[in-house]
Amino acid sequence: FTPGNPKWKRNHLTYRILNYTPKMRKADVDEAVQKAISVWSNVIPLTFQKVEDKEADIKISFAYRDHRDNSPFDGPNGQLAHAFQPGEGYGGDVHLDEEEAWTKDGTGYNLFLVIAHELGHSLGLSHSNDPGALMYPAYSYTDPSEFHLPQDDIDGIQAIYGHSNTTVQPTGPTTPQACDPNLTFDAVTTLRGEIIFFKGRYMLRKHPARAETELNFISLFWPKLPSEIQAAYENVERDEVLLFKEDKYWVLRGYDIAPGYPKPIYRLGFPKTVKRVNAVYSDETTGKTYFFVADRYWRYDENKRSMDPGYPRKIVSHFGKIGRVDAAFQKDGYVYFFHGKTQFQFDPHAKRIVGQMESISWFNC
Amino acid sequence: FPVAPETEDERKTLEFVESYLQNFYDLQMDHHPHFKTKSENHLVEKLKEMQAFFGLQVTGKPDLDTLEMMKKPRCGIPDIGQYM
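Predict the joint structure of the above. Result:
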């Protein structure tokens, strides 16, 4: 919260766009502003009206270097924008650094995301130290079409203005905490000796030689990948990682998405009845890859690059009572299956479960 | 830290750290020799405040993780004193 807890005393606010950047179409700037306004108007009982030729509570403008508010901008990068807390005159105003590479997508700085953040200040919020929060001070990209206001920001703004008038209260994504015993995963894979755990728009990265676990946005490394990855595995021999979501898959070669992806999963030999993959792991000693879909599994031959005949089979018939699989990976000869908060260690030679632990057992909690 | 910078790089790093903390953590620096020690202590305190906010190791020193975080593009903090 901002010291002094400044807030607007009225529930109906006006906003005005004073000027435009030549780097984006006017319509795209208008759309970014309107979408940013709705991020907040959806969760609090305030209404916002756009005005054109008169004073407004929130004035949005692009400014260059010293723009007479005693807080000059610094050229490209560094400070992207700033905004004033609620109040008269400058109060609530948003200033955007004209020298930034403003865009409507993931290149440069996404105007919608930055304005949405600044409007949080215009409404009275300060910065959050939750790295997944919109009000986190450092910029990070999220595909605007996948953007949902995080719970941390909803809690903050509703503490100032109360709940929204909608019958169903909006909720938002929370940031994974590596040592949260309730943490579950969307997908897990090895990657060049590290283990990558996917959760929502995040990835937790664990290097065997490092004690701490690194939390990053997936978009930090791979802006073209979607969030909510559903399955992933590494083909060590080809130095590739395949990532699955719905009926598509991407190939990572090194740290880059291979060109021409995503491709349909049916290229791998799945029937059209399969709409998504729940989990997958690859056994580099046999060159066989195991795909898990609902209560069945397929076996794929990496050398022939085709599904083995006689599949799918029931998971329970070969892997025992591991239930539906959220995620899986193989390491040091064992297969690790994730089912909610529980993790099963499977010995493929003994063909049985030899261990059971918490899903977060890899994070040295 | 801040031991008197010995190399050009260290001097630039110190300037960068000072500028960041002045912009975002309201660091007040007084380079008058008489206030040098006090300013340096103030800088270390602000550096620790920044490290604590970002969940970094609170060392009071501009280690790599801290400098990496400082280099990330971010939201500015306008000087509201004037308009207040």
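Chain B touches chain A through 19 residues (CB under 8 Å).
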